[in-house]
Amino acid sequence: MKFIIGIGGVTNGGKTTLTNSLLKTLPNCCVVHQDDFFKKPDQIEVGEDGFRQWDVISALDMEAMVNTVKGWKENPVKFARSHGVSLSPEAEESDSGEKGIHILIIEGFLIYNYKPLIDAFDKCYYIAIPREECKRRRSTRSYTVPDPPGLFDGHVWPMYVKHRKEMESNCDTLEYLDGTTSTENIYNRVYESIQNSLLNKL
């Protein structure tokens, strides 16, 4: 059985923390990070707001991301092995992934804003945090390409608001998570929800 989980949400909301916790506890679990598909800085356009447009879908090679997901769907065992993921003995016996449960987590800030990806999800989670908390967390992070002054207020947050509205019209099965609660609390809620969904699918 193959099961695909989406973990979306605002920048610095806790997506990667949640993903890493789930990877440790879910069986035969692989991950695709949207951040791995950013285009090179010289391919990112400067918008009318004066900032490089990192927080839009065109900043990402979404076709390559969808192809990566397809690769997992075609052969989750091969995908897991090539990504250094250890498999259960039951899953190891099957080269094509017919035995056992195989889980893929797709994690990113715009995963519900690209139509060819939306249909892939069995479960969709979305972590939200208030604007000021998001700004505070973002200011403590160091990025490969540092944030220029005013980027959060002038580009990051306005794009988040725009994309969230778009996402809500694209995807009606989202489960919202409060990113201000403890990481343990978020993990427990999601883990339990996934277990229930898996039981229902068996």
What is the compact description of this entry?
With 202 residues, the chain is α/β, with parallel strands linked by helices. Helices cover 44% and strands 15% of the residues. It has helices at 15-25, 62-74, 76-82, 89-93, 115-118, 131-140, 151-170, 183-201; strands spanning 2-9, 29-33, 102-108, 123-128, 174-178.
Number of strands: 5
Strand order of the largest sheet: 2-3-1-4-5
Distance between the termini: 8 Å
Give the percentage of residues in beta strands. Answer: 15-25%
Radius of gyration based on Cα positions: 17 Å
Low-pLDDT residue spans: none
- The chain-level structural class is alpha/beta
The major β-sheet equals: 5 strands, parallel
Question: What oligomeric state do these chains adopt?
Answer: single chain
Output mean pLDDT: 91
Shape: globular
How does this structure look, described?
The chain is of the alpha/beta class and 202 residues long. It is built from eight helices and five strands; from the N terminus they run βαβαααβαβααβα. The chain has a five-stranded parallel sheet with strand order 2-3-1-4-5, with helices on both faces. Helix 1 packs across helix 8 and helix 2 packs across helix 3 (76-82). The longest helix is centred in the C-terminal third of the chain and has 20 residues, at 151-170. It is globular. The mean pLDDT is 91.
Map the helices and strands.
Elements: E1 2-9, H1 15-25, E2 29-33, H2 62-74, H3 76-82, H4 89-93, E3 102-108, H5 115-118, E4 123-128, H6 131-140, H7 151-170, E5 174-178, H8 183-201
Parallel strand pairs: 1-3, 1-4, 2-3, 4-5
Helix pairs in contact: 1-8, 2-3
